[in-house]
Amino acid sequence: MSILGISASLRNRRFGYKNQLIEDLKKIKTEEQLSEFIKDQIKITFQEIDSLNKEKLNFEEKYNILKKHKGNRGLSNSEASLVYALWQSYINGSEIDYLSLSNIFEQETKDKVKLFKKKFLSCKALLVSGPVYFGDRGSLTQRMVEFLNSDDECMNHIKNIVYAGLSVGAKRNGGQETTLIFQMLDFLNMGCKVIGNGHETTSQYGGTLVAGDIGKLQDDSYGIKTALSTGKHLSEIIKKVDFSKKIKFHEIKEKHICNIFVLQDNDQKQCTSLINALIKNIKNKNIIFNVFKIFENNVHKCIACDVCPISYGSSEKYRCIINNKDDFFKKYHRDIINCDSFIFAAYSGQNFKNVKSNYQQFIERTRYLRRDDYLMGNKLVTSFIISEVNSNRNLHIRTLTSLVRHQNILTKPILVFKNGNAFVNMENIKKDFTKFCEDAVKVKGINSNTEYKPVGYEISLEKYNLRKEKS
């Protein structure tokens, strides 16, 4: 089982069926050698383009001629970003494979799609790199998602694999993060497990790289770090968690604690009531649920202090600067961190007339937990949202895009649709809730060496460096 790296650019250079790229990567021992390899491959791409420039051809003519080349030389920007991540995965102990989507879906045939499906069904993780188009992924990625969504075997397999993404834009803040978020949602909705880049680059949505013209990517040192970090994180997860492993859920003997935070509910407490009803369906006393009615608690707003957390010490000790005795985080700090999985629940109404919420205060206050070496991290997480028809508040998206930054593994959101007084999709909800519990117990033993590294906070950075010197 391997990580399948996919480049989703129409400008891909490695579109030949012979996988020379992987053979080349396995020979590289250091980052310096990797950079030299990429530099040499980009030169090849430039030389091919320059030779065509002399013939005074228009772009489409050059593009079509380049597509006729052998396809085992050179690199596009999307391929170069993927190379960094794949190489790091390999160095970290994972098997790797590569596929160019332009070779599959640009001029689609049954044989090409068959090759794609064969590679996909043999992978344990998917690493997708592609360009930004107006803050969204390109048409090749969209076509891949459409195919996966239409094939039963692929849809069964995708529930057992982990996805991570890389995105290349022409400038910093050029839509890379929105592209990754939309792509992340595609894979979550298909049942895939999703992660971002690792703690070395502060756990964002994946690799975000800057490159407009071919070859510019190598100037983006921070973007390259996010690609390397994504590859490493993906490799670490699949080495420690096997979502394809079959378990007899009712026979699980090891205790598993799942914290459920009800952040927002209506005056009838329907979200809380439905959560409690679903818990009763889990017929295993070793799965323990702690349901916290956050909407009824006092949650102080985060003041974004510059020394968060305020001291060094044991993670069991509450170390946020807010010290109100009745504050939820002050009272329940140990209960929050001493668990194995999380569900973030909320009632989403068309308006707030009968809804009480501590959603935003709670999410922002988890800042001190993130900055304390990701105390909520490395757990399976989902959102559970009761959504009135036409509420359109996208709480499931907001929740999960916040929690990926806690270094968590995301899984399919559980969405309950309410029409009038009826929940219209209860059978699916029961299945999704049970599936979350079954997958959550598989996530064990990955709480190692996750260290928060301050970026953009000078005082916190000074404290971090001082601690490193002392240790």
Question: What this model shows, in words?
Answer:
With 471 residues, the protein is an alpha/beta fold. The chain folds into 2 domains: 2-240, Rossmann fold (3-Layer(aba) Sandwich), CATH 3.40.50; 249-440, Rossmann fold. Helix content is 41%, strand content 17%. It has helices at residues 20-25, 31-53, 59-66, 77-91, 101-105, 110-121, 139-150, 152-158, 176-189, 221-240, 270-280, 328-337, 359-365, 367-371, 395-403, 426-440, 458-470, and strands at residues 2-7, 96-100, 123-131, 162-169, 193-194, 207-210, 256-266, 287-293, 341-348, 355-357, 380-388, 409-410, 414-419, 422-423. Strands 7, 8, 9, 10, 11, 12, 13 and 14 form an 8-stranded mixed sheet that branches. Strands 1, 2, 3, 4, 5 and 6 form a 6-stranded parallel sheet that branches. Helix 11 links the parallel strand 7 (256-266) and strand 8. Helix 4 packs across helix 10 (221-240). The relative contact order is 0.10.
Give descriptors for this structure.
6-stranded parallel β-sheet, single chain, Rossmann fold, alpha/beta, 471 residues
